[in-house]
Predict the structure.
Amino acid sequence: MILRTIRALSLGLLVWCAAALSLAAAPQQAGKISGVVVDPSGTPQLGATVLIASEQINDFAPMELLTNASGVFSSASLRPGLYSVRATLAGFLPAIEQHIQVSAQHTTLLEIELGSVFASFSQLRRQPGQPAASNDEFTWVLRTSSSTRPILRFDDGEVVFDGEESRSEAGRKNQPHGVIELTTGSRHPGSVSNISNSPATAFAYDQNLGGAGRLLMAGQFSYEDEGRSGGFATVWIPAGESGPVTTLVVRESRFGTDGTGFRGMRLDHDSQMTIGQRVSVRYGAEFMLAGIGETTSSLRPRGQVTVQLNQEWHVAFILAARPWPGADAGSLQGALDSLDAFPTLLIRNGQPALEHGWHEEVALEHSLGPRSSLTASAFHDGASNTAVFGRGSASGANFLQDPFSNGFAYDGGDSNSWGARVAYRQKLSDVSEVTIVYAWAGALAPGAATGAGDLRELLETSYRHSLAARLSSRLPRVGTQFTLGYKWISGNVVSRLDAYGESAYGLDPNLNFLIRQPLPGPLHMAALVDVGNLLAQGYVPVTTQDGRLLLVPSYRSFRGGLSLQF
């Protein structure tokens, strides 16, 4: 009770300090975005919603504005960088402008045209030999709808055409509306909460609802006789591209022919808001209901306050059970990934329980330029049900066997640890990025005594060092997309070391790689290969009163298949 009170007071103090900083600190060297929203005939539109979002890594929540009677909108002060601007209004097609450059002491002016179903999509391409944009502080830019007009740049009274084809429009043309995947099964076997480790068919579809936003639907089904499973997910994004996200997932798996199996439901909501010009608040919660026979439920709120200290520094205060949905939450792949986002279901004293823990973090991020950043974090992890995985047939009452693989899940009990992390991100090009993460944190590991008691009595929190690197890129000619990662840990552990950081930065223990190879032909097909813990590292044998067990914090796994986009 005392710890909960301290946490509540601490979070309240952080929010108060963040608001005070936002009011006390004045923006330095800031720019603005202003403009007008018109219909295809050029008539200004009242009440159009304009969403301005930064394109930089881990930047602030989008800024939402409404146009006045003259169709005009104007943002508060923005720090220099690239921004995306989206305008929506009932009865019109949304218009999106991306890569809008905001410079210090400049006002970038836009004219955004909301298209109709009869709008022309002809585009003007950049002509060779055009002059570069001036850096003079009195230069300002007029952008129009990228689907109908070129960009005009006014420089000392001279009009310069910048007829670059809109990247956003090209992206919308090339973006698939659906995908079908034929895969071999689960990426992370060992838990009944995961998608079954058997051949399955998955699909996802993106439906534009116009003024009501976007609705993504995804499903996956497996047809093995002794382990049929299926799931369905919907992701609703009212703003269309960013903003609030609501996800509903239902899953069911049958074990054998007696009708027993796993059933689960997860409802998740994520939203954000701004306080002043320097503070953004991200908040959400997820409700879960799951079980085998009997059910258990869990409600998990989360919050994050981010304060901009200046143009290059900002600090974040985080309280959550798991990382926030990633940038791809509104994509087809993100909808498919949501099907596998259940926490691990465990058995303790004959009753079902969901893996549960709290992560509290203070992170300071420094922008090293438009393509790189350095983040230092201090955090605390506490769990009441810590999942420990193993391989083999365990007969104890607290071991939940996975019917789809030769693995089991075990409730390792309470764990409590502090930690620190330093992460460096560098965008090498538009298609390549490298991430390097060092962490010092606690995880469950076998103690000195073995054989006398049950597994839970033998586990204790031990502190370890880890160093991880991840490279993602795409080969230019053949189009091969790949992700290669490796995480080294200084000693044996049987639970995840800095699980929050692993999920946030896409890093799994040991050697992992993912390859996506487009296939030639008229269909948009690609071959998928996803391998986890290729060298089978980190397995820990222990001896307990239940016998000899092999604990596996990260399974060696293989997932392959084909993907068809349409």
Q: What stands out?
A: DSSP finds five helices and 35 strands in the chain. Residues 2-24 form the longest helix (23 residues). The mean pLDDT is 80. The radius of gyration is 26 Å.
